[in-house]
Amino acid sequence: KGLRGYLPAAEGRGLMVEQLAYDTWSEFMATRRFADVARRHLSIGLARGVDGAGERDFKQVFHIMHAIDKLWELVQTPTEPEQASTRAIDRTWELLTKRTLKGVVGTGAAYFKDKVYAEGNHAQLQLHLQHPEVKPYINKGSYDLTNADHRSILKRIGAIPVWLLA
Fold it and tell me: What H or E segment, with its residue span, contains residue 14?
C-alpha cells in the first residue's frame, strides 16, 4: 500500500489542499473543517494526558470535549441553547465513538490515526514552501518526501529524480 509511515504525509497533503481554497490561514481556521481536525487532535491528546493532567478515560474526555463542542454550537446559534446542547452531545459522541476513541478501552486509550492530519499538515506545508520543486512528485504514491529513508528508496528505484531534495 505504500512505504511505512506514509500516512501523516498523505493526510497532511490532503488537508493542505483543503486550505488552498482559502485566501488566508485565518479564513481556514474559522471553518468547521479546521475545528473538526483540531477536535480530533485534542481529544487524542486529552486521552493520552499530553497536557500533564494524566491519562483520561472515555467519560473524562467526553466531559471536556462536550464543553468545547457546546461552546462552539452556542456561538453558532446563541438564541437556541437547547438545540445547541443537543447538537453538541451528538457531535462529541460521534467524535469519540466513530473517530478518536473508537474500539479502544481504558484510561489513556485512543485511536491515533486522526492525529496525523495536523502533524502531517505542518510538515507537508513546510516542504512545499521550502522546496517548490517537489510539486510534480508529491502525489505520485504513498510515501513521505520529508522522510530521508523514503527519498532514498524512491531515488534507488527511479520514482523520483536523484537531484530532488539532495
Answer: helix 7-19
**What end-to-end distance do the CA atoms of the chain give, in Å?**
25
Query: Per-residue pLDDT tens for 107-136?
Result: 998 988 888 888 888 899 999 999 999 999
**pTM of the complete model:** 0.81
Torsional sign, CA 66, 25, 23, 13: negative
Cα dihedral 114, 115, 120, 121 sign: positive
Distance CA 147, CA 50 (A): 25
Look at residues 41, 51, 45, 56 and name the one whose alpha carbon lies nearest to residue 11. 41
Continuous H helices in 49-143: 58-76, 81-95, 116-130
What does each C-alpha distance from 16 to 1, 95, 96 come to in angstroms? 22, 22, 24
Identify whether the C-beta of residue 143 lies closer than 8 Å to the C-beta of residue 120: no
Q: Grid cell 504525509 — which residue?
A: 9
Angle at 122 between CA 121 and CA 124, to 5 degrees: 65
For residue 39, with 0-12 CB atoms within 10 Å meaning exposed, 13-18 middle and 19 or more buried, which class applies?
buried
Cell numbers of 99, please? 473517530
